[in-house]
Structure prediction request, 182 residues.
Amino acid sequence: MDKSKGTKKRIYISIAAAAVMFVMLAVTTYSLILSLVSVEDNLFETAQVQLELNNGQTVFNGDDMNIEPGHSIVRDFTVENKSTVEVYYRLYLENVSGPLRDTLTFEIYDGSTLLFSGRADDMTRESPCVDSNPLAAGEVRTLTAVVKMSESASSEYQTASVSFDISADAVQARNNPDRLFG
Prediction:
């Protein structure tokens, strides 16, 4: 009988110890979660970053690039923030080819504010057009692209062409004061 009482007592003590450990684990886990979530200015927020350039339509097509010395082609286009947060964006040219690349100047405006001015080879991913004003979630901004041909361009460019892709990237604005793109 003494053995059976001793065995029962050990079982009860083991169950009680397991229950106490379970309660301690639950309290510790709850405290840890509460401290991570409720510390001011230490909140972590996930977000979806997505940008749409000109509703997926081309800004310039081959038919509208008939340009002569001293003239410009002007096109409005949109940048839409389809993200869940405010973002910074950058615009740049890719796949630039053709002899006109040396005589054309590209300018990007937000209203009357000049965001970028340079040749096609200057507007790269490493040296992009970056707006210092972030786009709010859901905001659509209309920009203006002006492509100018140098007045001093010679007749050698008369039948010349240029092709390029306008590309855009976005990065979350929060906690990114230097507008660093990954």
Q: What stands out?
A: The first helix runs from residue 2 to 38. Residues 51-172 form a domain with the Immunoglobulin-like fold (CATH 2.60.40). The beta strands are 51-53, 72-81, 87-97, 104-110, 113-119, 129-130, 140-149, 163-172. Helices lie at 2-38.
